[in-house]
Each structure stands twice: as structure tokens, then as C-alpha cells.
Structures
1.
Amino acid sequence: MKYDLVLLHAPSVYDFRKNALLAGPISDVVPSSPVFEMYPIGLTSIAEYLERFGLRVKIINIANRMLLDEKFDVEKKLKKIKTKAFGIDLHWLPHAHGSIELAKIVKQLHPETPIVFGGLSATYYHEELIQNPFIDFVLRGDSTEKLMLQLMNHIKNGIHQLGGIPNLTWKDGGRPVYNPLSHVPDSLDEFDIPGYRYTVRSVFKYKNFLDPLPYKGWLQYPNTAILTAKGCTQACLICGGSKQSYKDNCNRKVLAKRSPKKLVEDIQFIQRFSRAPIFILHDIRQAGKSYVDEFFERLSKIKLKNELVFELFQYANEEYFEKIAKAVPRYSVELTLESHDEGLRRFNGKFNCTNDKMIKTLQYALKHNASKIDIFFMVGIPGQNCESTLKNVDFCEQIHLACNQDPRLSYFVAPLAPFLDPASPAFENPDKYGYKKFCNTIEDHREAITQPSWKYMLSFETDKMTRDDIVNSTYESARNLNAFKLKYGLVDKKTHDEVNEKIAKSLEYVEEIDRIMALSPEEKEMELARLRKEMDEVNRYSICGKNELKWEVKKNYANFFSLAAVGLELLFEEIYNNAKHSFNSYNRWIASRTKTSRT
């Protein structure tokens, strides 16, 4: 089968199946594994947009295919592909190794086929990436659907004058060219983000349901998400997606919103095939009160079958939860509180309110029937020391008692790892915010992510915590939090003991790897190979129970007839759109011929 564009998602470290790696807790609080196999939602919106114009676009989650099958042959899979171009995402920096290694393999197999990079990290490091002989183009910015269509039209038609494509970094006779970063749309309604219609249709169209799977375990627990906006109104120091970061990296000065009408349409489509929770990405209050009111008004008029999960960035009053409860039959809340310390939160920009107001927020949510509230604390934020990290668990107990020991509250701790976000204020001004950076270039990060322990992956220390402090404080906080959860019946004894055992084993491996790192290269390789299979056991949910982050779902999918109807409907829709596109192209050709003959 021939394609116009094949979009590939790489594992964080390409050869993860061979090399020993103590990833520790760096992915414990996200859906994917330490391989970071979940691809960014932008791949689906690009694919959906291009297919509207008659192009054939295929997504292959290489990372997930490698995870699902130890014998999966990447080169054999890629060698068979016939396409006009490959696209590889470098959105999150932990993919710095895998994405470039995958580009190298693709270029060896298909030397004449152009390779396009994109994503927030690719945008930040575009000048370094374009020097790579395996990378032909970098599309910068946070919204590249239209730009990819323009570039694909150039590639298909053999036109090489690329100066008119905004945001494009390319090579002119080997010399890098940086077109102005001027394409910054202020609305997302034109795009399908995420492109679930594309994803479902592609399974039927390309007869392969494994290639586009978002992450390992998705079939058993098919979480979905909808994107409310690109950009941010918050000024968090450690976030590469903060207001200042988006301005500096993507030239985004205003929030780009997806309208409430489109959000509700997305929800209605998702619940035609899934019954799992739907995450509403970002705090919808960023867009203003009228936006929030319209969203809930529209939600109240549909028959909502899925649980919705709302994010909070700041304090929320009781009125907000009253609106949610009125419009949403079942909902949950997620918030990254980061620290018990009001001063640190104010300094970092997240939940810069008093602890009393924070507790009030949780009480309001519980009062108005939130089914689950996940609260996350972090280790490694600006101004934090070891003592402060341990006090987070004391604050968990304070919250729990103030909320009448409500079992709907869940508590988590995680390190700021493995990397400090490029474009974040802390990355750009480390001395000002108390950081010492070990990684600056893309090559630095590529080297770091391949280290055998997450301690050596860390791209930073702070003026108050060394790498050892961050590692030890993370595990000690997790152990104390685990004891707190057992005390209040938030986990059972079996889960508590399993987590404690993994923490103890992880600390042993940290020490063992420290010893191995001092050996000769040959001895080091032998010793790490010995540890590899053992370490696999503690690389997933090493500091919390494997089911703690999951929502109770009685049914994952809609019925078979609904799924079949969705697939057929989308296929017929594509046939219609392709016919329409061909008809319009024919009319333009006739018009141009007529104009030429008259001339």
C-alpha cells in the first residue's frame, strides 16, 4: 500500500529492549511506560487534516509495537513502506534519543525519502536538528496541520522553492534556512484535535489496529482526551508549556481555543466507541467565564455517558463545582499541587493561594459529587529542600482530616524528571531560579536519557538539592506516603507491601549502578546486562500501586454495532470527501486550461 505521509512515534531510547535501564518513577503518573510510548495528539490532527485533502496518511506507533512484541522487527516493518515522506515527532524531550535514531534507520532504508520533524522540543532545537544528515525539514510551532499540507504539496509536485512556507526550517543546498515563525492560529476549530475520527477510520481503512494504538494497555483501558486550548495563561517556572514558554518558543501571544461547541461534539463522538473516562486537557477556566458557562450549558443538553476528568491550575470556588455537577453526571478532578509550602507555590506560579483555600477547593469538589480527586506533589521544584519534600506527606494528612478522611481523595508524589523543560523560565534562567543544568543541547539530552539509572538521567540539580537528594527524597516521600495511605485505608496491605518492596529494591539498584558506573567500560557493560531483566520488574509503578491512578469503569467500549456504525460512517465520509476533492481539482484544471487557451 502506498502512502503520502507516514507518521512515526519512537521510544524514548531506541534500543530499550537491549540496554539495562532503571527508569524508576519517571513515568509512574502518566499513562505510558518508561518507554514513553504514548504519542502526542498532534499526530492525529495532522493525519486527519491531510486526509481531508485526499492524502493517505498512516500513523505507526513504533514504540508501542516494540513494547507489545519483543520480536517486532522495526527495520523489516519500515523497509516495506512506500511513502512520499516520513514524519517523526519530537514533542517531549525524553524522545531525543529514539526519534533521531529512528530517523537514521529510516534514512538508511529510504535515502531519497524526506524526513520531517515537529513538536515543541523539535521547535526549540530546530537549528541543531537541521544539521543532522538524517533530517530534511523541521516544522516549528504548536499548530502545523496547514504547514504540513503545504510541505506535502511541494514534495508531491517536486517544487523546491520552500521560502513561502511559514515556520519551516529546511536546507538549501546543504545550507540551513529558517523561515519566519509567523503561522500562529488563534482558533483550533478548523482542526480535529485529537483526531479520533481519523484513528478509528484508519483501522478500517489500513486494516491494522495495532499500528495506531496510543499506548500499551489502551485496549484494556481506553482513556481518551480532548484539547481545550494551545498556549497557557499561567507562568509556572518549570513548565515548557507556560505562557512565557509558548511566547518564546512558538511565538504564541494569545490562547488558541477550541470552542465549547467543538468540545461537546468531540465528547459525543468519543462516547460512540468508548465508555472510559475523557480527560479535559487544561483548566477550562483559562478561556474565561462565558466560555465555561457555554461549555456546561451545551454539556447539560446531551446524554453524557462517560466520566469527565477536569484539571485545575488554581483555586476554584463552590460555584464552579456546582456548574460541573449540574451538567456532568459523573466527574473527577486532577490537580498538581506540587508543594505544601504556600511560598514555594507562589514562587513557582502553580496554586498560588493559601492552604486553607486549597483545602476549600477540595471540600467543594467533594461536596458536589466528584467521584475521584487526584492530588500530585513534586520533588525538585524551585526553592524546595529535602525537608520540605517530606512535609508534603504531612500536608496530605492535614487535607485528609480536613476532608473527613474521604476515600475519594488520592495522593501521589513524583520527581521533576528526567529533564528540565526547554523554554521554561527555569531552563532559560537557571541561576535566577536556583538550578544547575547538566544538559543544554539536544545531544546532551540524547546522552542523558541512555544512562542506566534515572539519577544519571536527571538534567539538573538545584541550589538546595543534589541529584542524590532528589532521588532519595523521592523514594522517602513515596515510602512515607505509602504508609499514610495504609493508615487511612486508601490502599490495602498487599498493595502497600508491594510498593514498599519496589522502593527498597529500587534503592538497592541505585546503589548498585553507582558502583557499576566506576568500572571499566567492558565490566560496566557486563554488569548492566546482568541487571537488565531484574530491573524490568521495578520500572513500572515503582512508587505507587498500579491501579491507584485508574478510574473504576464497568464497561470500556460502546457496543459492537455502534463501533461498526462509526467505522462505516467514517469510510463513507472519506469516499465522499475524496470524490469532492477530485471533482474540485478537475474543475481547477479545466479552468486553468480554458484560461491558457484564451490567452
2.
Amino acid sequence: MRKHPPFAISSAAIRFVFVFGSQAAMFAFAGITAFLLRFDFSIPSSYLGDLTWAIPIWVFVKTLTFQLAKLNRRGWRYVSFVDLYRLVLANSIASIMSCGIILLLLPRGFPRSLYAIDFTLCVLGTAGLRALVRMISELTRPPRGAGEKRALIYGAGDAGITLLREIRNNSRLPYRVLGFIDDSPGKQNLRLGGVSVIGQGEEVEELVVKLAVDIILIAIPSATGAEMKRILELCRAAGAECKTVPGLAEVIEGRALARQIRDVAVEDLLGRTQVHLEEEQIRRALEDRVVLVTGAAGSIGSELCRQIARFQPRCIVGFDIAESPLFEIDREMREQFPSVSFCPEIGSIRNRTRLGEILGRYRCSTVYHAAAYKHVPLMEEQVFEAVENNVFGTWNVALAAAESGVADFVLISSDKAVRPGNIMGATKRIAELLQTSLQNGHTKYVAVRFGNVLGSSGSVLPIFKQQIAAGGPVTVTHPEMRRFFMTIPEACQLVLQAAAIGRGGQICVLDMGEPVNILDLARNLITLSGLRPDEDIRIQFTGIRPGEKLYEELGTGLEDTLPTSHEKIRIFASGTMQCFAPEKWLESLRAICERRDLGQLISAIRIVVPDYTPSAGLLKQLIGRTEHSPAVDLKASLLDRFIAAD
């Protein structure tokens, strides 16, 4: 054990003595100076006795007031305008209290101007002490070292000024800020925090050469995708490294803006506007509740667990069949959210007994159903597995929720459920219809439909990154291929919001913005990697895969759309199972799956999803099966049946 010297004094004790001693001395000095100024530096002998009473009263009352206002706990070297406001307020209260006590003890009092002079001197003195400490702190800050980078900050707004302040306060950030760049003509030549706005975006290349700039820090969290792309192109053309600061959502999760400086990501180029959540509404739906998340180890399911944990549920039950990923999310949740109970449970959504067991044991009040097979080309080859998991699995979870008295059931759906051209989309549309058919006034069933999420397992972004790391080529199916994209956190936040807004028996559709050209996405990602498309990394077109469309949709003209209280969420009235009861239709579908009858399966799906169009790849499978069956003559009729226009 380390031994301390017998008379060692801690830094906290030294700080305490300095703070209280310097302030008490300043309060006494302000009182004496007020008397001297009032009486032209010749205090009448009749007031000298009163002065000896007034000084202790002023020092005691003002010191006590500052302590109760917790002004002495705030770091003086970080003094700001907010602290100045609090100083004025505390001095006002202390002066009024001191005046009252003095009038009570000394009935004749002092000339009224004395109180005003004392108040003014105290405000100037307390603010001056803190400003002096901050100035000394900045002058004595240790040097940054030889690895310092010469930097420009692109963006002279609030984020840029905050970034400059934090760079100055943190000697471990290896940047020397030479100036601001801003596209606003009104900000040119202004000095902000002692640093000048020295040019606009078009002048970046010239400034980089002139000032020998190493790095450009982009501090415009509100920039659109087009604006970020333009800024990135200007920085790349200038040959300077560039990084960016995050938007508000990322800052909330971290502790300091400057510590989150990162490389420009492809997400920054999508132009996704900041999600504003009605958090109180979500909190009412989740706080102190037991929440079950199926598919909890997947990209969407795991992020749902993280987002739900922010609203302090009583317990989150993570249900998934994948053992190792479930182990990882369990470990992460325990580390990141120790105050929230996370219970990992292994099982399949195809197992009704297991589902009933989990729901009964934990008495869940909310279910987020994210478990599904989602990869379109793979599901075109594994048709029966897709149906058994996405259709029967969803029915199992939805029915078990109703039987267990779950209050809210939320289905994670897909834009591929709109006029589906593949099995994955068709099964998602059936899942929407099935859960809606259970709406009976008890459990509230809501489906949330959205498009692709960047960075999810198996999505295009990690595939592109792997291909770039390997030196290419980057494979794109078609030059006109377009998809809707949002980030995983944004999607999950809006899912929580939609679940709180939905009234039951509805499909909520998230605003996905404008569709993104996949070829542009590939080119942008290559550029962000510091390489040149078609020169350093080749782009290769591979052709549209089975079940894929060139364009995805989020809704159809046949569905009635209604706005909600949230600008990024709209409501579609879901259709119901027509002609047949769901149980009877599912029983027939199960028998078809057991027989592995692909033709009958397609027919059964089209009964409830009439706008489903089987893909060419699936029809080839169907034709191949008929050629090996006795009913070879059915080949032409099958083609007429499934390809003919409706």
C-alpha cells in the first residue's frame, strides 16, 4: 500500500481553500472599495463602525449564497456565458439578502448607492476571477507535440465553434486550426473564437496549398447528402484528408463532440435528416414493461434492444435461434445497459411450445417481431423454408402473443411486401395480413414497413467494403438499380415511434426519402476509401438476380394513406384475409409445404396476395419440377397461369 507523507494536502483541499479564500477576499475588497468610491476615498468616522459590521455580513451571506447555488463546483477554467448569467443572479440574491440583514441590524443603514456599487464590483470581481483562471489555464496548456496536423474547419456555425473550443481544451487532439471555411458570404472575414473565416468552398484547393493544410474537419451536421458529396469532392480535389463531426443523435450517445471526429461515411452522403422522436410517448409505451424481441441477435433486432433499453423497461427478453450472436448481444447489453435486465433465450419461432413457454414465464407486455429470412435471391432458392419461417413463424408468434395477453405486437415488415416480385416479399405481405386478421380489440397489432438499412448483415454496404478491401471489382447488378436506404439506428428509432403511434390493425410506413442509385453508392464508397472509381477499383455489372426489381415501392395507390403526428411516419389501412379464414388457409398451405408442391404453393400465395408475380428464376424451378413429373403437358398451362397479365 502506498504511504502518504503525514502532512500531505490533497489537490481537492487546495482547490477548496483557493476558491473560498479568493472569493471571500474579493467580497471584502468589493465592500471596502464601495465605501471608498462612495465617499471619495475619505470614509466618515461615523461609518467606520458600520463598515466593520457590514463586511462580515457581506462575506458570509455571499459565500453561503454561492455555495447553495453550486457555483463553486463549476470548473472556473471552463467559464461560459451561462456561468455569467448564474453569477449575476447569485450576486443579485446575495445583495438583496445582505441589504435586508444590514437594515435589520443597523436601522439607519447606508447610502443606497453603496449597495449598487457593491453589487457591480461583486459581479465584475467574481466574473474576473473565473476569467483569469481560464486565461492562465489556456496559457499554461502543455504543447500538443510533433504530430500536430494543420487543420481547417469547414463550417463556421455552432458545431464548428464548439469543435474549435474542444480542440483547444484537449491537448490530445492533434490539430492546429488555421481558419474556418464557410459558404455563407455574410460570414467571410469574421473572427470566431480568435480564428478567421478565410474563404468559401470553391477556395479549398487554393487554401490547402497556400497554408499547407493536412486535414479538413467538416462541422456541418445538418448538411444534406448532396451538400456533403460536394464538400467531399472539393476536399478530395484539394488532396487533403477530411473527417466529419456527427449529428445530434451521435453526440447524445457520446461525451464530447471533438472526441467523435471520424472519417466521412457513406451514410453522410444519403442526406438523411435528423430523426426527432416524441420520447415521452415512447417512454409511456416501454417504461417498466417486459419486452420480447424476436431475432434479437440480428442487425435490426439487436439495435431494437439497444434503443428500447434507453427507455428503462423492466426487462428485455432477447429471443433468437443463433447461439453465438445471442451470446454477444447479451454481453454487450450487460456492459452498456447494466441497469436494464436482459434475458437471452434460445429458440425457434417455428416452435409454438417454446414461444408459449417464454411468453408465459416472463409475462411480456410488448413483442417486437424481427425474426425473419430476408435475403431475396437466397429465399428464391429456399422457397419452402421462407414460407415456413416468415409465414408460419410469424403466425406462431402473433397467436402466442394473443393467447398470453400481450398488449402490443409489432411486426417488422419490408418495402418488398408491396406488389411483391419474390418469395421474401410475398411472405412478408402474408405476415402483415395474418397479424392484422388477429386484431380483435385486445392485443394491438401493428406492422412497420421500411426499406434497406445500411450496414445490416448481408446488405450491400459491407459487401462493397469487402470487395474494395480485396482490390475489387465492386459488383453492381444493374446501372439503374435503386433502393431506399436508412441507417439501422434511424430505422429502429422510427419503429419504436410507429409502435407508439399505431392504433392496431395498421401498417406504418417509414419515410425512406429518395431512392438511392446503387451505382452511385458504390462510387461514393470507393471515393471515401481514398481510391478512384473505374481506375483504382473496377465496377462490374453482374445482372439482376432472381426476384429482384430495379425499383422498390413503399406503398400502392390501392392503399389509403393517412398522416400521423410524426412527419416521417404514415399509416396504410391493411387489407384482410379474403375468401378464407386464416386458420383454414394456413392448414392448406402447411399440407402443400409438406408435399413440397411448388405449383400449388404459388397458387395458394396468389389467393391472398393477388399482386404477387413469381420471378423468372422461381418459374424455372417450377418448370424443372414439372418436367420430372408425370404431368409434363402442364408446362404450357403453368406458364399461362403464372406469367399472363392479371
